[in-house]
Amino acid sequence: MSISAVLSSKDSFPFCSRSFCFRYGSGLLLAVLSVPMLAGDTTSTSASTVPPAIDPTSAHTLVTKYCVLCHSDKLHTAGITLQSLDTNVSDSNAATWEKVLRKFSTGQMPPPGLPRPKPEVQAAFTKWLTDTLDASAVAHPNPGHPTIHRLNRAEYSNAIRDLLALDINAGAKLPADDTGYGFDNIGDVLSMSPVLIERYISVARLVSREAVGDTAIKPEINDFSPAKDFGSRSTRVSDDLPFDSMGGLSVSYHFPVNAEYVIKIKLPPVTQGFDAPSQTPRYLEERIPVKAGLHRVGATFLGENLVPESLGTGKNRVALEPNAISTAKLDL
After folding, report:
1. Is the distance from CB of 278 to CB of 317 less than 8 angstroms?
2. 143-184: per-residue pLDDT in tens?
3. Other CB atoms within 10 A of residue 110 CB
4. d(CA 187, CA 180)
């Protein structure tokens, strides 16, 4: 194969032969020699770009040559020694090999001024180490060991509710939980101090008494108040109340023992119409036997212009006087 070139110019007198061409004129001389390209040169060029094969033995040789000078058992530079590091990657040395891969692949190591491997050797070693680490991770997955997680206050209350049917918000009696990154359920942050353990034991005593029950306990009175605009609300205030209800309240209450409980409803005074005898509040009272456990109690007005919902005729559904509290709903 031959290459020739011709430069056009005024006052030029070419003289050409098979292997080269001269053109004289304007003080310019151009010569292009035809150089044969041998097939053997192409083969040698492509062969030189083939990366060398890397195996554990050659990898150990490369690390010893370029890395152990600084990262030896004696110097222990940056807290890492590669002198006795096994090139058979496993769980015990994978973390160290990850550091080697990160530094070696980015060109940070060896440091400037020290001998470096050829680029093709560096690329081959990086690929071998990446594939080896990936294969080891697939063969021996290691998700790590999370910190033992104790229940925070909200989780403790939910656990007591789900296991013992005691919706008493037991976690509110515990100290506030530590937070980290805006969360209070991180195992590394939730510590266990002796004082906190004592509080957990104290709350556990309370929970156990509530769960087992004690017939010798003294009677107690619990008051529940609706919203301030109870008498004027014209909409349904809770999903636990009938669809045709207006205002009222619905509460969840834990009955400690099987007993007869007194449900007393305080009504606002009647201030309008001909049926307003006085300005004093009125009271409605029902005595109902209830089994121990968590129950929901509701009281509401029934809407006059709404389609009534069928409440059934159960013994715990009590119809009261009209134009006042039309229904007292006890979900027992």
Report:
1. no
2. 777 788 899 999 999 999 999 888 888 999 999 998 888 898
3. 17
4. 10
Give me the amino acid identity at 112. P
Distance from C-alpha of 66 to C-alpha of 174, rounded to nearest angstrom: 59
Tell me which residue of 57, 161, 19, 139 sits closest to 90, measured CA to CA: 139
Q: How many angstroms separate the CA atoms of 318 and 328, rounded?
A: 6
Classify residue 31 by burial, with Cβ atoms within 10 Å: 0-12, 13-18, 19+.
exposed
pLDDT on residue 301: 79
Q: 222, 256 in Cβ contact below 8 A?
A: no
**Residue 284, SS3 per DSSP:** strand
Distance CA 280, CA 270 (A): 8
Q: Where are the beta strands (DSSP E) in 29-107?
A: none
Query: For strand 317-319 and strand 245-255, is the pairing parallel, antiparallel, or unpaired?
Result: unpaired
Does residue 309 surpass a pLDDT of 90? Answer: no
Residues 6+ apart with CB under 8 A from 274: none
* 155, 147 contact by CB (below 8 A): no
Q: Which of 251, 246, 263, 245 is nearest to 225 (CA)?
A: 251
- In whole angstroms, give the CA distance from residue 169 to residue 150: 17
